[in-house]
Design goal:
heterodimer, A: alpha/beta, Rossmann fold, seven-stranded mixed beta sheet, five-stranded mixed beta sheet, B: 330 residues, alpha/beta, six-stranded parallel beta sheet, 11 helices
Chain lengths: 329, 330
């Protein structure tokens, strides 16, 4: 174990994988100097032909990833901000996610489309979306959402090894956060959830950056005798539904915390799966803690009010259990 | 610039090979057009008739490890690059034996084993994919090239400019082939396109040529220059091959369009530039073959098409119980 920042975990993973496999290439917006620090120094180590800055041309960039992968490379395409993936969406939505199926499995497309995503930094609406639900609905793309530096290392390594396209979304503004990362080549199977806090009263599924405030809430609630079983799904495609269902069957309650807007959020999908598959176990309605259906604002107080936080997460759990704050549990 | 008619002498065998390859596309397309009108095909069919000299003139000098990507009008490119006639026809028929086992259909025929990244239903999509494949070829250092075929409609997608920029900057071995057939779906060129398409390479400093796309030899010579440039590490070429779409955008369009977008007179006049009879005349006048030779080739192709249709008709549809879920993820 060693304490590492998330960008450091990502950087070291890219470095060690590129050192082992000459077929891995990394290209994208400013990957040489690296805006976030996650790809810094890799050009010097692995060569200008394998680590390349792209023009700000997302349409051709996302498609080049498809072509290079089809021609035998393992491609890491850094699109900087998740919102920029909208600009390059055709090749992700129409090509990367579908060409294997449409050609009856003639090819696999090992591509990692990576970017930061989400709010909290006054970057305003065009740099702050949480777009993972949109990718979940494409069908042929895996979706990885690391919550910690360890997640980032383990999920990125698995994403690079995966023969399929993966969208790897790191929480914006969290790159500098530290966390313990296991020594050696940590790898987390895509589709395998982690339980990050144990409890018997309510199951909580927190997605990506929401794991941290959810964990804080779980710890605080535990002090009041409320047991939260907190699950970090790590990937939304594939989704470890068994881990979620077995927890809900035990606790009878579910709260899903998601940074996406409420309408068709990833939380909505988790809620639907549980309503469908373990309705008989539910003692209370399923609750979603999400972002209101508004664009992300610029001004800090406005933005802060929209994002789920420890307070709003705790309040949702307390309401669900009929145990408001300040009342003896 | 236009081609300078370099002195290229083709053997009789080569000339007949070109003729055969063009005629194969023509006869397959005529068959599929007929099948589509008769309601025998599940989906839409976009015919390549009239443009055969472009696909054959270029693909006839590509290797198996060279990549091509195509568009919705992609049967011709598939066949020109060595795709199998039976597997193509069975795919368009939606059968289990098709090249994509009935999962892609007419607009998505692909055979990666032959460097055919495939037809594509998104206008202009092949441009970026081919650019990426060309990057891979450059990294491999094996001299392979990528060729993107697209129409004048796709030339109006911004991705062409993005691809010209990055491929020139990186000196990628890629050739952008715009088959200017006069129409963006149902819109004549002049109503949706300004200037000349080849000129779009100029500001990027990319090589570019405008050629008569109905003249196979001119296409071949231009492609030879572009391929040489690409294999030599000198970067991309944009080729604008002027041709004409004999059929409509899609077979059967007269049944749903409320009006017309081109006159019968125009179509008849342009059909006079049909590349196949012109090429036959060239062969005959040069004494490289007899009419009997050409007739024999036609008979052989006709038999090949009939065999492909029989193969498709005898093939089962894919089993609905097997939805190909295994194809979603490797």
């Amino acid at each position: 174990m060693a304490k590492k920042r998330m960008i450091q975990a990502i950087n070291e993973t890219l470095d060690s994988e590129m050192a082992k496999d000459p077929k891995i290439v990394l290209f994208g917006e400013d990957v040489e100097i690296s805006l976030f620090g996650d790809t810094v120094g890799l050009k010097d180590k692995h060569g200008a032909h394998r680590v390349r800055n792209m023009p700000i041309s997302e349409t051709v960039m996302s498609g080049m990833a498809v072509g290079a992968a089809a021609a035998g490379y393992k491609v890491v395409c850094h699109m900087m901000f998740g919102n920029f993936m909208y600009t390059g969406f055709d090749s992700i939505a129409n090509q990367a996610s579908k060409l294997r199926y449409m050609t009856a499995g003639q090819i696999s497309l090992p591509i990692v489309y990576m970017s930061v995503f989400g709010g909290g930094r006054s970057a305003a609406a065009q740099h702050s979306d949480a777009m993972h639900p949109m990718f979940m609905n494409l069908g042929g793309i895996k979706v990885a959402l690391p919550a910690t530096p360890a997640d980032a290392a383990g999920l990125l390594r698995a994403s690079i090894h995966d023969p399929n396209p993966v969208v790897f979304l790191q929480a914006a503004g969290r790159g500098g956060e530290s966390g313990e990362v296991p020594d050696g080549e940590v790898i987390f199977e895509l589709g395998k959830a982690a339980t990050v806090h144990d409890g018997d009263d309510v199951t909580m599924v927190a997605i990506g950056a929401m794991v941290r405030p959810a964990l804080r809430a779980a710890k605080r609630l535990a002090e009041d005798g409320i047991g939260v079983d907190l699950i970090d799904p790590r990937t939304m495609v594939p989704l470890d539904t068994e881990a979620i269902l077995s927890s809900v069957r035990r606790t009878g309650r579910l709260v899903v915390v998601d940074e996406a807007r409420d309408l068709c959020s990833a939380a909505s999908h988790v809620a639907a799966v549980c309503a469908d598959q373990c309705f008989e176990a539910l003692k209370a309605p399923i609750k979603r803690v999400t972002v209101p259906d508004l664009a992300m604002p610029y001004s800090p107080p406005l933005e802060k009010a929209l994002l789920p936080n420890e307070g709003s997460i705790s309040a949702t759990v307390r309401d669900l259990l009929g145990k408001p704050a300040g009342v003896e549990a | 610039m236009t081609s300078s008619g370099a002195d290229t002498n083709f053997s009789n065998e080569q000339m007949l090979g070109f003729y055969r390859d063009m005629l194969r596309i023509r006869r397959v397309e005529e068959q599929l057009g007929k099948d589509s009108l008769a309601g025998n095909l599940p989906g839409a069919v976009h015919l390549y008739i009239g443009q055969e000299a472009v696909g054959v003139g270029i693909c006839s000098q590509l290797r198996d490890d060279d990549w091509i990507a195509s568009n919705h009008r992609g049967h011709g490119h598939f066949l020109a690059k060595g795709g199998d006639t039976k597997l193509l026809v069975a795919e368009v028929y939606g059968r289990k034996t098709g090249i994509c086992r009935g999962h892609g259909g007419s607009m998505h025929v692909a055979d990666f084993s032959k460097g055919i990244i495939g037809a594509n239903g998104i206008v202009g999509a092949g441009i970026s994919i081919t650019t990426g494949a060309a990057w891979a070829a450059q990294l491999d250092g094996n001299g392979a090239v990528g060729v993107a075929f697209f129409g004048d409609g796709a030339a109006n997608q911004g991705v062409l400019c993005e691809a010209l920029n990055v491929s020139t900057l990186w000196k990628l071995p890629v050739i952008f082939v715009c088959e200017n057939n006069g129409f963006s779906e149902f819109s004549p060129y002049s109503t949706v396109t300004s200037g000349s398409i080849a000129d779009r390479a100029k500001p990027y400093g990319a090589a570019h040529e405008t050629i008569d796309g109905n003249d196979l030899i001119e296409v071949w010579q231009c492609a030879a220059r572009a391929i040489r440039r690409a294999r030599d590490g000198k970067g991309p070429t944009l080729i604008e091959a002027r041709t004409y779409r004999h059929s409509g955008h899609v077979v059967g369009e007269h049944t749903f369009l409320s009006g017309t977008y081109r006159s019968e007179e125009e179509v008849e006049q342009k059909k006079a530039g049909d590349p196949i009879p012109a090429f036959a005349k060239r062969i005959l006048e040069a004494g490289q073959a007899s009419q009997a030779d050409l007739d024999r080739i036609d008979a052989e192709i006709t038999a090949e098409v009939a065999e492909a249709v029989a193969f498709a008709e005898e093939s089962p549809y894919p089993d609905p119980a097997d939805q190909g879920a295994g194809y979603m993820f490797a």
